[in-house]
Amino acid sequence: MAESTLSTATANAKKLSGKVAIVTGGASGIGEATVRLFADHGALMVVIADIQDELGQRVATSIGENKCRFVHCDVSKEDQVKSLVEWTVQNFGRLDIMFSNAGILGNSDQTVLDLDLSAFDHLFAVNVRGMAICVKYAARAMVRGNVRGSIVCTASVAASKGAKRRTAYNMSKHAVVGLVRSASVQLGAHGIRVNCVSPFGLATPMTLQAYKKSAEEIESMYEPSMSLKGVALKARNIADAVLFLACDDSELVTGHDLVVDGGYVNH
């Protein structure tokens, strides 16, 4: 069982008491860290949505079925996301939080000159189409339930600047920020907040697989680009930012891109 992400100092601060949340891509990495943090902060139920069935079920079981459930969901498939949201509302009465986190890296070496459009389409199906679908159905459920909910999407520091490679990935994360800004304007009338969190590079199962490196090597690779020294970005740091955007601490924050990068963007 993974160690609890809730520190002793905040053990009694249940910021999500009674809330129902969905976390896509919740079986590992940033998603898993956020699922555990949401559960620690008193969420009534956290639903893990992922295509990694064994990992997702393992995380849910380790937390306990009274607080966490796993549902297989490919976010690029509209019918699956629709069913996920409907199942959550039918079983737990409401949806308060959607953390639309599922995403892929794609081919990291592509430039505009050698862009593989089939790979481009697949990446956009997950990173952009999937995000839009999750925002759409979460917002519909919140409006129907008269819930002043919070929707958080995972963007990236890639949305803050251009890149020498990873063209499709860079474009997809710019699109996520555009989605968040537009959705926040449109859904504000319903009391629904929409924000995104933009991490810098960190060691997750996805990045470890992409770079074929150890966690220590990944952290050493990214550290020189951060102005904040003596620290390494961890999944729990991103989960902390998501918790802030999901809970009432940020009740007047919407349309915001919260960058968690150790100073990379301004370095």
Automatic annotation (TrEMBL):
Pfam families: adh_short_C2. InterPro entries: NAD(P)-bd_dom_sf, Sc_DH/Rdtase_CS, SDR_fam. Belongs to the short-chain dehydrogenases/reductases (SDR) family. This is Uncharacterized protein. It comes from Hevea brasiliensis.
